Amino acid sequence: MNSQTAPLSKKSMIPKGLLVAIGGKEDKENDLQILSTVMSLVNKEKKKIEIITTASQHPKEVGSDYYRIFTKDPNHTVGLLHISTREQAADVSFLERISEADVIFFTGGDQLRITSILGGSPIEGEILRRYREEFCIIAGTSAGASAMSKTMINGGDSREALRKGTISVSSGIGLVDNAIIDTHFVERGRFSRLMQTVSMNPRNTGIGLGEDSGIVIEEGCILKAIGGGITVILDGQNLKYTNVANINSDESIAIENLVIHTIVDGYGYDLCRKRYLKPDDLRRMHLGESEENTNENN
C-alpha cells in the first residue's frame, strides 16, 4: 500500500507531546509548584524554553517575569518571542527557535490576540506539528491555556452567561479537540458560561481551571491536575435535555443532567473515556505503561 494513502494507525494519531494548561495567577515567588512541574516534564539537564508573549499588550513586562523564573537555573536557555504581527508569525528565525524548543510557553493576556495573529501561520503550524510528532511541552497560562482548545471561549459576562447568545465562542489553536478550557474559573464565577458552552456541544468536556491550578494532558486524553487550586470538569456526555436550540437570544437556558466533577493535585480525568481518575487509578495506569515499555524493550 502506498505510504501516502495508508490510514494512520491509532498509535500514530496519539500526540507525542504534552500539554500544560494553567488557570492563571500561578505562584511566581515561593514554591513555584506549577512552573517547576512544567520544567520537570523535560528529562534533560539543559533545556530550551521559548516564551511567546503574543496574548499580552505589555509583552516585555509579562515576558520578563517568566524569563526571570526560568533562568534561575543557569542550564536553561530562555528566549522571548514577542510576536505581534502576522508578518512576524512567519519569521524564519522565530520558526527555527520553535523547532528547537523543549518548552513552548504562552503567557496570559487576550486569547483572541493569539488566534488572530498566529492562526494559520507557519508558527502555529510548527507548534501543532511538534506536539503531534515530537516530544515537547506546550504550556500556557490564562489566555495561553484558553487558546489551546479547538473551540475557544473569547468573551462573555459570567453573570448573564446562562442566557442564550451571551457567550462569544471562536476557534482556538486546536491542540485539544475534545474539550473547552476556561481559566480564572472559580475566582471569577465562570461556571455558567462554561455550562452554556458545553450545552451547545456536549461532545466537548468543559475544563474550568482555577487560579494557581493546572493540568497536564498526556496522549491527548489523560488529564492530571497540578498546583494548589481546583479544576472543575463539566461532563455533558449524558446530557438528557437542553432548550438551547429552541429559544431566542437572551432567553434563559435549561440544562438537565450535566455532570460536574472537581479534581485537585494528584487526581485526573480521562477526556476520551469520560472517566474520573483517582490517585490509585493514575498509579495503576503508570504501572501499566511501565510494564508495556519493559515488554517492548525485551
TrEMBL record:
<keyword id="KW-0121">Carboxypeptidase</keyword>
<feature type="active site" description="Charge relay system">
    <location>
        <position position="211"/>
    </location>
</feature>
<dbReference type="InterPro" id="IPR005320">
    <property type="entry name" value="Peptidase_S51"/>
</dbReference>
<dbReference type="GO" id="GO:0006508">
    <property type="term" value="P:proteolysis"/>
</dbReference>
<keyword id="KW-0645">Protease</keyword>
<dbReference type="GO" id="GO:0008241">
    <property type="term" value="F:peptidyl-dipeptidase activity"/>
</dbReference>
<dbReference type="InterPro" id="IPR029062">
    <property type="entry name" value="Class_I_gatase-like"/>
</dbReference>
<comment type="similarity">
    <text>Belongs to the peptidase S51 family.</text>
</comment>
<dbReference type="InterPro" id="IPR011811">
    <property type="entry name" value="Peptidase_S51_cyanophycinase"/>
</dbReference>
<keyword id="KW-0378">Hydrolase</keyword>
<dbReference type="GO" id="GO:0008236">
    <property type="term" value="F:serine-type peptidase activity"/>
</dbReference>
<comment type="function">
    <text>Exopeptidase that catalyzes the hydrolytic cleavage of multi-L-arginyl-poly-L-aspartic acid (cyanophycin; a water-insoluble reserve polymer) into aspartate-arginine dipeptides.</text>
</comment>
<feature type="active site" description="Charge relay system">
    <location>
        <position position="184"/>
    </location>
</feature>
<feature type="active site" description="Charge relay system">
    <location>
        <position position="142"/>
    </location>
</feature>
<dbReference type="Pfam" id="PF03575">
    <property type="entry name" value="Peptidase_S51"/>
</dbReference>
<keyword id="KW-0720">Serine protease</keyword>
<protein>
    <recommendedName>
        <fullName>Cyanophycinase</fullName>
        <ecNumber>3.4.15.6</ecNumber>
    </recommendedName>
</protein>
<dbReference type="GO" id="GO:0004180">
    <property type="term" value="F:carboxypeptidase activity"/>
</dbReference>
